[in-house]
């Protein structure tokens, strides 16, 4: 099944109420031929992992502007591993200070995309890194 479309869950963990960036990314990924599932605002780690499992996604794209990324992003990575889904590509985006990025990558988030990143860069990263 070489033509399998990449399935991406776009999720907004925590109490962040701003989703414009997530919607822009979701539309760009969809327009690039990926299947996109958007979970909506204020999702718990458990809700995100359950949705990723139910939807059998290849990628979990987290978006966060509230400042809780150092806690919530690694929790999603760990919860996916605990559910046997450690092969799911986890990426993050939002207002994330440069100084926080190495720690997030060490925690298993494969890439962080900050405001102003061209959507093509996100699309290309997913296509190059998803486990097909």
Task: Please give a structural write-up.
By secondary structure, the chain is of the alpha/beta class. It is built from five helices and five strands. It has helices spanning 20-31, 45-54, 69-82, 101-106, 119-129, and strands spanning 7-11, 35-38, 59-64, 89-94, 111-113. The chain has a five-stranded parallel beta sheet with strand order 2-1-3-4-5, sandwiched between helices. β4, α4 (101-106) and β5 (111-113) form a beta-alpha-beta unit. α1 (20-31) packs across α5 (119-129) and α2 packs across α3 (69-82). 37% of the residues are buried.
What do the pLDDT scores average to? 95
Order of helices and strands: EHEHEHEHEH
- Main beta sheet: 5 strands, parallel
Question: What is the terminal-to-terminal distance?
Answer: 10 Å
Radius of gyration: 13 Å
Total count of strands:
5
In DSSP terms, counting alpha (H) and pi (I) runs of 4 or more, how many helices?
5
Low-confidence stretches: none
Q: Which structural class do you get from the secondary structure elements?
A: alpha/beta
List its traits.
132 residues, alpha/beta, five-stranded parallel sheet, 5 strands, 40% helix
Question: How are the SSEs placed, and which strands pair?
Answer:
Layout: E1 7-11, H1 20-31, E2 35-38, H2 45-54, E3 59-64, H3 69-82, E4 89-94, H4 101-106, E5 111-113, H5 119-129
Parallel strand pairs: 1-2, 1-3, 3-4, 4-5
What does this entry show, briefly?
With 132 residues, the chain is α/β, with parallel strands linked by helices. Helices cover 40% and strands 18% of the residues. Strands 2-1-3-4-5 form a five-stranded parallel β-sheet, with helices on both faces.
């Amino acid at each position: 099944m070489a033509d399998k479309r990449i399935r991406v869950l776009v999720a907004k963990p925590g109490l962040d109420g701003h989703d414009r960036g997530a919607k822009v990314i979701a539309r760009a990924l969809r327009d690039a031929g990926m299947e996109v599932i958007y979970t909506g605002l204020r999702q718990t780690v458990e809700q995100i992992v359950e949705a990723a499992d139910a939807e059998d996604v290849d990628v979990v794209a987290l978006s966060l502007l509230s400042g809780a990324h150092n806690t919530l992003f690694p929790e999603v990575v760990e919860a996916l591993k605990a559910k046997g889904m450690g092969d799911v590509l986890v990426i993050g985006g939002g207002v994330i200070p440069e100084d926080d990025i190495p720690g997030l990558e060490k925690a298993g988030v494969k890439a962080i995309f900050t405001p102003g990143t061209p959507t093509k860069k996100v699309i290309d990263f997913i296509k190059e890194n998803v486990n097909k």
